Amino acid sequence: METSTWIWIIVVAVILIALIAAFMMRKKQEESRRGEAQELREKASGQSTEVRRSETQADESGAHARQARAEADRKSAQAEQLESEADERQQTAASHRSERDEHHRRADEIDPDTDDRDDTPDDSRADRRT
Prior knowledge:
Shape: rod-shaped
Oligomer: single chain
Order of helices and strands: HH
Structural class: mainly alpha
Number of strands: 0
């Protein structure tokens, strides 16, 4: 055989060995990735319970927050109602006070025994006459 034939045989053999080595390395890499993927899947499955527990806790916290918000809204509405009632009662009291003072003033105007120079408050004069 000629030298060039041997060279071609060696070149083809080297190329075949390189291709076989590359193919085997690729297979080994794929197996390694499959193993890694399987480990990640197992880890994710193990975390599923933790995720469900966390989601349940988050849902419970959300429910408690909504309950607290509803209670706060109810209390706020109740406080507004009580404030409104207090305002109405203050207005009624002021109206009654004004009406009472007007009656005292009118009584003082028409009473011949009332001294117009008396500087005491209306309440004091009313107490003296009763």
